[in-house]
Design a protein that fits this description.
Length: 346
């Protein structure tokens, strides 16, 4: 069914009222004409969702026209994995990266889970295979194996417990083992060491060597320069940054935690040490806040587009459909369910 001009104008108006606030990504002006051009596509996706009993989950780093145009749920990895687990939808489109869609499939095995672009990897998830983790595990047999959710299903299947950026410290602190093999983020491993020391908890943290290509380049000296130039500045960092950057920040946490912090804090300026999509979300949801700093993009997250979401809904290609061996899925589900048991309740 073709949308009427009236429906298209109404949809363009809805998009424009939200997206007019976004100005973090250079070269992407959000004017009414842009929104009017997108409207046929967002309406077509809404229709396909209804016809197919589908939902769309979107990570906060994907383009704002996906988040505010078509997503049913938007947020960080933990929130989206909870939503995937409680979903009763026949189909889940995951606009994020492949490890997130795999997690959704692990938790919602009866749904068809599709990704807009199979190339949407992650430098962390791609840094360690299940076979490499088995070798590490054998070298440290007394260690609890803790995987960051930014890991493949194979790595999750070899782990005792999975964690996200929002619950990593609380979960590691509860584990009985003194030695922790934490994979695949070396920098988050450093941040765990610092935080557990601060809490007076003695643990030895061993890590593999992955880093996030978006967060590993932020620099503590640039934070000091920014503070000198913008008095009253609040600095907000993700725990995938180095320990030096984390030490220089006013708040360190998951993307969901970072959003909550900014919304609850009054300050003249904020510097967000994370992917720029999060600044876009804050500009839409808290337009009074002012942000300084450049825009770092995750090349994997930015492979998502409305066109690819529509194609994955209408007629997914085999490479867009997530499939997992059932034994592997069950083993991976155990480490994620353990996370849900140990994670603090909000
Ligand atoms: P969050 O779970 O904090 O959203 O982090 C996901 C991620 O990929 C950060 O780079
Ligand atoms: Fe992976 Fe970094 Fe992109 Fe997050 S921002 S998906 S950790 S590469």
């Amino acid at each position: 069914m073709i949308a009427t001009d009236h429906e298209l104008d109404a949809e363009a108006g809805r998009l424009f009222r939200l997206l007019m606030h976004v100005d973090c990504e250079p070269g992407r002006p959000w004017n009414y004409e842009t929104c009017r051009r997108l409207a046929p596509l967002t309406l077509e996706i809404a229709r396909l969702k209804r016809e197919q009993g589908a939902i769309i989950l979107a990570h906060s780093y994907v383009e704002p026209e996906i988040i505010y145009g078509v997503a049913d749920f938007k947020g960080d990895s933990y929130f989206l994995s909870l939503k995937a687990r409680e979903a009763r939808a026949a189909k889940i489109v995951f606009a994020g990266v492949v490890f997130m869609a795999e997690t959704a499939k692990i938790l919602s095995p009866h749904a068809q889970v599709v990704v807009p672009d199979r190339g949407s990897g992650c430098s962390l998830a791609d840094s360690l295979t299940g076979a490499q983790l088995r070798e590490l595990r054998a070298a440290y047999p007394d260690a609890a194996v803790v995987c960051y959710i930014n890991s493949t299903a194979e790595v999750k299947a070899e782990s005792d417990v999975c964690v996200t950026s929002g619950n990593v410290h609380d979960i590691v602190a509860q584990l009985p083992q003194r030695r922790i093999l934490f994979v695949p983020d070396r920098l988050m491993g450093q941040n765990i060491r610092v935080e557990l020391q601060r809490r007076g908890i003695a643990k030895e943290i061993i890590t593999s060597d992955g880093t996030c290509i978006v967060h590993d380049v932020f620099d503590a000296r640039a934070v000091a320069d920014a503070r000198a130039r913008f008095p009253g500045l609040r600095v907000v960092a993700h725990p995938e940054c180095t320990a030096e950057v984390a030490a220089a920040a006013d708040y360190v946490g998951s993307t969901g935690g970072m959003m909550k912090y900014v919304r609850a804090t009054s300050a003249p300026y904020f510097l967000m040490l994370t992917e720029c999509g999060l600044v876009g979300r804050l500009q839409v949801e808290d337009p009074e806040k002012r942000f300084i700093g450049g825009c770092r993009l995750c090349p994997y997250m930015k492979l998502n587009s409305l066109e690819k979401v529509r194609d994955a809904l209408a007629a997914p290609r085999p490479d867009q459909i997530i499939t997992l061996d059932e034994d592997l899925r069950r083993r991976a589900a155990r480490s994620i369910e353990r996370m849900f048991e140990l994670a603090p309740r909000d």
